[in-house]
Each structure stands twice: as structure tokens, then as C-alpha cells.
Automatic annotation (TrEMBL):
The protein, known as: Uncharacterized protein
Gene Ontology cellular-component terms listed: cytoplasm
Domain of life: Eukaryota
CDD domains the record matches: SEC14 (cd00170)
Amino acid sequence: MSGFSNDLSDEQTNALAIMREHLSDVSSNPLLDDDYLLRFLRARDFEITKAESMLRQCLKWRDEIDIENRQNREIPEFAKFLPNCSPPIGKDKDGTPVMYCNYDGQDVKGLLQCCQVKDLIWLNSYSVEKADVAVKAISKPYKGATFILDYRNLGMDMLSKPNLDLQYQLNSNDGIFANYYPEFVNKIILISNSTVMNILFKLYKAIAPKHTLSKIELVKDIKDLKRFIDEDQLIGYYGGTLVDQDGDPKFSSKITYPSKIPKSYYMAPSFADYELNSDYTKVDIERGQEITIEIEVNTIGFSIIWFVLSKEGELEIGINFKGESGEVETVEPMAEVHCHLCPESGSKICSKVGIYTVVIKNNALLKKKRVAYNVDVLKEDGHDVI
């Protein structure tokens, strides 16, 4: 049996019932219908314990990034240049909804100067979440979507370290898509004729889940798309006959076509501006060394805020906590940030009273780095404490 809700064996039906019983503590979550639970069961070959653990980790992640509240989060203006998952447009020959993601000519260098990798991760998650909701609305049973990914005309910036970091966090076996959107992909049709994509795909094969790799079809010419999608279900831009309500064969109202990002959207300022600003502490961090900024918080609900910029090269930033017992625990694990391209800023609500330590580390092996930073604490009303 396929493991879809309309094609279950007795054993699979029993596994679904047991898993639902195990999840009774979160049964009020409207997300957890049979189709959703079956996605995790199929992803773990109907091993109930593994599927439950995977789903609970997913719910924890969704809570951490507040994906349910996505409609109330402000989307930055530069996001209009970011490739998106289109809503479903037509169906493939198997009757699966088709979605389009166009990376042709993507300005990766520009994007990475508009925000941090973590921001791009959230924006990608936001795009996939919207697409997933759209597929669920029209698919019973849920079988995911077929994706047309246009990777023609890629620049060498796709192979930059920040972008490779982004791709790993999104697409690896331990990444967001595999673990938090299981079975979202029915098929991937990847259009590419570039050397850069050939290199990227070799790297991707080394990190991607095997079951995802088995769903990928590589084509070099858009005419080959008709092997998978009938002409009347394929948009005009890719050789079909579909046009949108305005007669646009590109469906520009639903599909983002990347272009060069104007420098006016860049966040990376001149480091010299911060050298002269007394609000920021300037320090040289020797190779392989770190600095720590301790902050005592006496009231739950206050927030630690930070801003860090390096003159050259990435850093690692994390936060630790020490309470009355003296035991140190990790609040924010050390994570690499490319704050030479775009300033790293963030905040963390303090859930305990004690000493919080912000750690900034130079992970370079050969050179010291000049850093400007500001670490502060805000009350709930937004006023400074220190």
C-alpha cells in the first residue's frame, strides 16, 4: 500500500491510530489531521517512534520561528527579488499540482548584502509554508507537489560560502525541508544547462536525503518539460499554453523572476562609520579567540538585544546563561554569521533571572578581525535598562 490516506494497509491504519494516541497532548492542534500525520509516518517508513519524534521536533521548530503567526510578520521589501514557490498552477500527468521556482539569474551576492542567512531561511520557510497550505487546500489525499526549478544562467555567487551554508540548512538530510516539510515534494524537475548548477548538484547529492534524490528529473531544455506535464497544464513561458487572468504567459503575478537588486536595499554600511560612533564598542579579536559580554538580568521578560559588525570576514555568535546554581547552559548555540556582508542583529527574551553572556568568536585560523558591537537590555516597554 502507498501509505496515503486513501490507500492504507491494516498495519498502516493501526500505526496511524497509535501515533494519534501518542499525540493526544497536542491533539487540539488543527494541523494534525490524518494526512499530516501520514506524511511523517511515510518519511520514517511507518516506524511510529521515529515518526512521532520527527513530528514533535517539527512542532517545536514551528513554535520557535512563529510560523503560525507569519501573516503578522513584516516582510522586507527586498524579498520581492527572492525566488518564491508559486501557488499551484496546473497539474502534471499524474494529476499532482505543479509549482514553479525560478532561480534564473538570481542575484545571490545582492541578497546576502540585504540580510543574514537566518533571515533568508525564514523567508524560504515562509514561502514553502504558503505553498504547502495551498497544496493541502486542493489535494485530498495529500500527495505533495511537482516542482519546476529553473536553474539556468546561474552566477558563481551561488557557490559562495554564505549561499552554500543557506543551501545546507534548507536542503540537507538534517535541513528544514526534509525534517519539517516531509513528503512535500512529489517530483522535482530541474532545468539547468550551466556549469555552476552541475557543481551545485554534485554538492547537493552529497547532503540530500536519498528519497528526495530519487524524485529529481534533470532536463536541459524546456521542451522536455512536456514529458511530465501536458501542454494545456504548462505555463506559456515554459512552452505550454497556460496564461494568467491578464494573458501573461509568465504568470508574473504569481511567480517571481529574479533581477539585480538595487544597492539601495543593501544593509552593509561602511565600517568606518562605526569606528567613529561612541555607541559601539570596537575591539580586535585575535584568530581563534573570543570575547564575552556579561549582562545581569534581574527581571523575567526583559530582552537582550545585540548588533555586531565585522570589518572583514564572518564571526560566530552565541548566548549562555548562568543562574544561582552556577551551572552554565546554552541559550543560543554558537552560529556562524556573515556580519561583514550585513550587520548581525537580534534579540532574545530572558525567561530566567541571572547572568547572560554574549559570546563573539573569531573563527579564522590566520587573521584577527576588527569588530564593532553593541549589546543592551530592553524592558518590555522598549526602554533601555543598561
